[in-house]
Amino acid sequence: MIADYIKRENIKVVKEFPKEFPWGDKVYVLTKSGMYFRLESQGDTTLKVAANDKVITRFYQHTLNAISPDTLFNWNTLTYPFPTTFNYADATQVCEGWHEAVSYMKYNNSRAHFILHSKIGFETTGNDVVPYGFEMKIKIQK
Q: Which alpha helices (H) appear in 55-114, and where do they start and end?
C-alpha cells in the first residue's frame, strides 16, 4: 500500500537527509525504522525540543487508499477545538512514529509530512493496521 501511494504521488525516496533546505519537490527520506519523512518548514531554530518538553501538535491524518481515503483533521480550532499534546520521549503517550517525526522536526513551529507503517504507527492489540500519512506542525513548551 505504501509503495502504491509513493508511486501514485510521484514521491522521490532518498536514504539520507538532504544537506540543504528547502528540500527538493516531493523528496522524502526513508528512515531506518521504515518511516518516510519530509520536512516542509524548519520553524524557529532557536527553540529545540528536548526530553520531557510538551509538544503541541496540529495534524492531518489520512489513509493511503486512492479511492476513498479516511481523513482526520486536527489542524486548527475550526476542525478540532483542542490540539493533541504529549511529552517528548515519553513512549506511553503517543506512537513511536510521532516521537521519531518530532526528533527530525526538532524546532518550534516546524512542519512535516510523514508516512507511518503499523509497527511504528498505530497498532490495535498487536494487530497490524493500515499505514497512515500525516502532515504535522508542532509547538514546543519548555
A: 96-105
